[in-house]
Design brief:
Blueprint: H1 6-27, H2 30-42, H3 47-53, E1 56-58, H4 64-72, H5 77-82, E2 86-88, E3 95-97, E4 102-108, E5 114-121, E6 131-133, H6 149-159, E7 162-165, H7 168-176, E8 182-184, H8 192-199, E9 204-208, H9 213-228, E10 232-236, H10 244-251, H11 253-261, H12 266-276, H13 283-297, H14 303-316, H15 321-339, H16 364-374, H17 381-393, H18 402-418, H19 423-429, H20 433-440, H21 471-496, H22 501-517
Parallel strand pairs: 7-8, 7-9, 9-10
Antiparallel strand pairs: 1-4, 2-3, 4-5, 5-6
Length: 518
Amino acid sequence: PDISNEITKLYDINQKAARYFYENLINSGAQEREMVWEYLDKRGLDKETITKFGIGYARSNWHSLENYFIEEGLYSQSDLELAGLLIRSEKDKKYHDRFRGRLIFPIFNESGKVAGFGGRIIKSDEDSAKYINSPETRIYSKSKTLYGLNFAKDSIRSNDSVLLVEGYMDVVSLFQSDVKNVVASSGTALTEEQVNLISRYTKNIFLLYDADLAGIKAAKRGIEIILEQGLNIRVVTLPNGEDPDSFIKSKGKNEFEKQLKNSKSIISFISSIYMQEGKMSTPEEKAEFVKEIIQYIVRIPDKIRITFYIKELADTYKLYESDMRDELNRAYKEYKKIKFPKTSIVLPKKRNYSKEDKDEKPPQAELELINLFINSDYKNPTYIKGVNYIVDNIFIEYISNKHVLAAIEILLDEWHNEEKIDVAKLLSQIEDESVRDVIISQMTQRYEITPSDHLPTDSILSIVERTPIDYLRTATDIIRMLKLQSVNRKIRKAISNSETIEDSMEKKKKKKKVIRRK
């Protein structure tokens, strides 16, 4: 490995540590070996599964892993600390192993490299956390990693679905029972990054969490994130006291698949929770249930799916769809305040418009500003630079059209909060039809725009190369054109207000400076 490269070094350290933990499992001392293999037999794991997942064992000694690396002359203590394998005491500044007396699960990244580790206690009477994980490192981020994805991705594609569970052992047990399209969000609550990772392989998620209070809470939060990302979700509720690991071992694959077939929609799932708690008997309790369901529905970016959910809710509980939509609109306004807070970093002031602005056609440069935002090309290295240039250099006085300004504010908010532009999601959230129309009018890729000889004379596109597009240059040209148009408007206003010749000449000088820079 190229140890001068920190990333390469960390992967090499983890690979060697994983091999060390695995060898410990195979060759540990008699006392520890008996204890570890007794536990593995109890959990029903066979040797083939243990080898495939690289499951290992961290000895109880405080310096076992540290001494191994030092004796082999492989890496320094500071290197191992950087990889999250050693901890340095604040008190005496001495190092010791992070993982001790635990079953070790290597955590592989999407491509199969060891990014981190999870350690589970074996002794039930041990007074410590059930699981501990590697800390955040240059190569391991809990929020961006799904345990088992490297093994499951082919099966996820072929089944066009994924089973999302909580723990390492759930993944391993299901995989051993030939249910291979399974991953876990171990070490963290489900995150947007993890859902985005899943979306590369499928849009269909089966959510399996424990039936206890903590599991239900985690499932509800998972539902929110999955819906916000536009994916399809079904919830699998196993019998009380069961988790995927215990259920498939006791009931087998066929019974487990029956549970998948009986999975519930979010409406049925939340309803079953209310029923179990005896909260569906009074009108007040039913109203509380409906309002909670709507809190989930407002997170869906697809209006057609929202329509079907509202219809299902209305039909199931004999309610008027119109009432559901009124409640949906109220809930969405509250949700939008939380999820899409307005930022005023770039456009700090509101502009007052005359009545004529409403029907005035936006200048071409203002439309091209919207075009650059919404027709994203993340593969082009100049795209991010171009958008960031716009963010740093756009001012409210550059925009003359009311609807364009509203659209730009929305796009800037989205870029600031999400660092990307999801046009479909934004359009579903914009209530003003005129603002939606101005965005829709620009939803054509730049390389498909009308040939330059048919473009308006003030079009930036007539002077910008199309293939490949230099977005930074395009952004620069757009800002210059907007500045020029802003100066022209000031000159026209000055003349119409009968300003002095001196004032008019000063503004003309500013216009010439902009032209010279262009």
